[in-house]
Amino acid sequence: MISAPELADLPGIDHGFFTRNGGVSEGIYQSLNIGLGSDDTRSRVEENRAHVARTFGLEADRLVNPHQHHSADAVTVRTPWKQGEGPRADAMVTDQPDILLGISTTDCGPVLFANPEARVVGAAHAGWRGALTGILESTIEAMVALDAKRSRIIAVLGPTISAAAYEVGSEFVERFTEADEGNGIYFRPNSKADHAMFDLLAYIVDRLEQTGIAHATSLQRCTYSEEETFFSYRRTTHRGEGDYGRQVSAICIRED
Fold first, then answer.
1. Does some domain include residue 153?
2. What is the β-pairing status of strands 215-218 and 154-157?
3. With contact defined as beta carbons under 8 Å apart, do 186 and 199 qualify?
4. Tens digit of each residue's pLDDT (9 = 90 or more) over 126-181
5. Residue 38 lies in a domain
6. Contact status, residue 200 vs residue 161, Cβ threshold 8 Å
């Protein structure tokens, strides 16, 4: 588990960006695969999820994941739901203690949010589509609805595919520049015609900074290149492997 300094010392808040290591899964899922949607053995996934929860001193049923679908939808969590029965959304916020908000990712950006004074936290799955259509802003608005102060919110982007590994086509570039011509700064050409390299990390952090929150930063860790540490959908695809594991980033409020 990786801890972000910006979140580590916040009173009443626990968090962690988990790696692929420390679990019981085998083969391409080795070893801390928490993906209920993967083809991994279900009992192993459940044990991995229980391990994550135990890291926070919680029972497995306190870890909640939404059904992520690359949207701009954020939900407020008041009570945990059963594993695999979460709402369709790509972000969660809560002001309730000991609910562990978990975002599963491979190459997309997991973002953890906290306003410790208001005792409100959030977690978002920010792939390119969600980031472009407003998942970060939706998460912050949902936190504000719980009386968080925008100017006091801290956000940290966890392990994400880096620009060096994120090749995209010209239609992808056009989608971003049509939304905002200034988005051209997040692309640089590569050797393949009509292709570019996309800096998702910088795009997410810049979007966060534009919201007026207190602080936004990134761990600057690449899921694709750090094979021993992280799962990567794109790396799996390039190798023709049939499936892939998912890592989790999680945050919770602790009881006083």
1. yes
2. parallel
3. yes
4. 999 999 999 999 999 999 999 999 999 999 999 999 999 999 999 999 999 999 99
5. yes
6. yes
